[in-house]
Amino acid sequence: MKLSLLLRIYIFILIQLFWSSMLQANTLDEIVIDNPQNEDVFFIRSSQVKVFVEKGSNEVDIQEILKDSTIQFQPLKSESIFITDQSIKEFWVKIQLNGNVFTHDRWIFEIPDSHIGEVQAYIHIVGDTLLKVEKAGYQHRFHTRNYKHKNIIFPMDQVNLRKGDKVEVYLRYDTPFQNVLFYKISKAKAFIRYSNTEYLMLGLNYGILVCLIVTSILLFLTIKDKFLLFLILFLLGSICIGLSEDNLASEYLFNNYPGFNYILLKFSATISMISIVLMATQFLEIRKENLKVYSAIIGISLLNAFYFLTFKTLNDSIWKLPTFLIPFLIILGYIFTERNQKKQQVKYFLLGYLIILTGLVFQVLRSYGIFVSANILIVYSYNIGLLLTGLFMTLSQTERYKILKEEKDKAQQELIKDLKIREKVIEDKVEERTEKIKSQNLIIENKNKELEWVNDELNQQRLKIQELNKQLKIENEKLHEDVEHLETARVLMQEVTFEEFEGMFPTDESCYNYLEEIKWKEGFQCKKCGHDDYATGTGHNARRCKKCNYNESVTSGTLFHRLHFPIKKAFYMVFIVYAKKGEISSTKLAEVLEMRQNTCWKFSKKINESMLRKKEELGSEEALRKQGWEALIIT
């Protein structure tokens, strides 16, 4: 699917969600509490809610509210759900209900807004009973609640209601948050059914997130990709945000430490923001491809986090930062420009990113009060987005791992095919040389037969035969040397055993001779004085400068300097690590060479470091492969 088509689909879905939420917000006032026998849940919104804001530092108690005629509750100015002004901390909410509603079944009053510093709830029967039913919020230990539910609830049948009674519910807020004045009244059976379903769905949500974390950890242990670390951090941040938004953290994690609610609320969103940015930039390789864009994204994100964590209070929302969405929009623009031009597959990643971006947009709009809706998809849009994002991000990395594996398998098949071709070439050359030897031997036999019959020309032909034998000897030596070189090339192109490798380097002395040939193939030059005349030095194949008497070991300046185990095993280890491109464990090396695993690990690390340096010096791995494993010896 093309990126431009995905963008159009995303914008269409965003408009539909916004439009449906606005339609629902415009029809909230139409809900009226009647026919309790036929309805299980009623929503109390703006048309049933009145507010009185306390002025000054004197706290108004419930008795003053009931007796003081000067206290006037005002209807909400907003036609939809009301969000209190940031400067308002203490205020009262009054909801007047008809007692006829509660004469059937048992009813539960519910405050879904979990971000409340403190709320005190009272039920008043006009002209009769006043009952304080609940006191809860972030400032109280969870276990002190009368009803242990993530939302604040209390039953409406704690007083004897008679037909025709007028019931008033008073709620006193003392909270640093901007609160949504949205309430529900449910039949007990409906509330229990809804509550069980809600806890089950939340449990599934966190269970899936935990499973995604475990999957990402196992995948990271396999492919060692930093993107997975950021994905794990994002999933952990998602769980923390969910626990904060759902108020489950105060119920299950720290119900005796209410102050932790504010800390979790403040830091979880910041961690999630940083992890999303790091995850996206790592997956899209923005730092490698466009350093300026990467610097802008990281810079703005860190400034946002620094400003929020330093200057904002614990109850402030990071979503309300004016620059919050800028890094995410830059990343989105990068996907639809740079990545689209390069035709790279980011399907699953894009789906996950668009989902989380949608949730972030709704969170920002809600924090500014642009629109607030009770639509379940809008309320839980960010939670749903976190879950779907984690799923799609995990799928994107799984798909990426699959592609890398296929490319690796294809490269291995090509390498095997190339090795077979080279082996065939070597065999053909060996066969050609063998035929030449047979031909030359036949000539010699014919010459010997001629010499038997021509004794009188023996003296004349003797010099010619000596010359011919001398030339044949030179050719045989050259042929033997070529065969050895061909066998060496064949060994270097396939995995061999240590016994086969010993055929090339049977003793430590042969290794030192080979090392001497490589190190001083262009002649000896003293490291201290630069003199080129030398004598035999102290130690294996060492050379001593005749001018300054500096003794230079043959292993000095090579991989084998200060070696503490047989050099022929070190030779074989260099060959194996080079042939395996560094992808062999020290445990396997220890098993093959019958050595200690720690020794193999240290020396193989030294070999890998030499391979990296040579790749940088030569410009590519292919250039290193052309030179062969002996290029690693001289450091």
TrEMBL record:
<feature type="domain" description="Transposase zinc-ribbon">
    <location>
        <begin position="506"/>
        <end position="550"/>
    </location>
</feature>
<keyword id="KW-0175">Coiled coil</keyword>
<keyword id="KW-0472">Membrane</keyword>
<dbReference type="Pfam" id="PF07696">
    <property type="entry name" value="7TMR-DISMED2"/>
</dbReference>
<protein>
    <submittedName>
        <fullName>Transposase</fullName>
    </submittedName>
</protein>
<dbReference type="InterPro" id="IPR011623">
    <property type="entry name" value="7TMR_DISM_rcpt_extracell_dom1"/>
</dbReference>
<feature type="coiled-coil region">
    <location>
        <begin position="441"/>
        <end position="489"/>
    </location>
</feature>
<feature type="transmembrane region" description="Helical">
    <location>
        <begin position="291"/>
        <end position="311"/>
    </location>
</feature>
<feature type="transmembrane region" description="Helical">
    <location>
        <begin position="317"/>
        <end position="336"/>
    </location>
</feature>
<feature type="transmembrane region" description="Helical">
    <location>
        <begin position="371"/>
        <end position="395"/>
    </location>
</feature>
<dbReference type="InterPro" id="IPR011622">
    <property type="entry name" value="7TMR_DISM_rcpt_extracell_dom2"/>
</dbReference>
<feature type="domain" description="7TM-DISM receptor extracellular">
    <location>
        <begin position="198"/>
        <end position="396"/>
    </location>
</feature>
<feature type="transmembrane region" description="Helical">
    <location>
        <begin position="348"/>
        <end position="365"/>
    </location>
</feature>
<dbReference type="Pfam" id="PF12760">
    <property type="entry name" value="Zn_ribbon_IS1595"/>
</dbReference>
<feature type="transmembrane region" description="Helical">
    <location>
        <begin position="199"/>
        <end position="220"/>
    </location>
</feature>
<keyword id="KW-0812">Transmembrane</keyword>
<feature type="domain" description="7TM-DISM receptor extracellular">
    <location>
        <begin position="54"/>
        <end position="181"/>
    </location>
</feature>
<feature type="transmembrane region" description="Helical">
    <location>
        <begin position="227"/>
        <end position="244"/>
    </location>
</feature>
<keyword id="KW-1133">Transmembrane helix</keyword>
<dbReference type="Pfam" id="PF07695">
    <property type="entry name" value="7TMR-DISM_7TM"/>
</dbReference>
<feature type="transmembrane region" description="Helical">
    <location>
        <begin position="264"/>
        <end position="284"/>
    </location>
</feature>
<dbReference type="InterPro" id="IPR024442">
    <property type="entry name" value="Transposase_Zn_ribbon"/>
</dbReference>
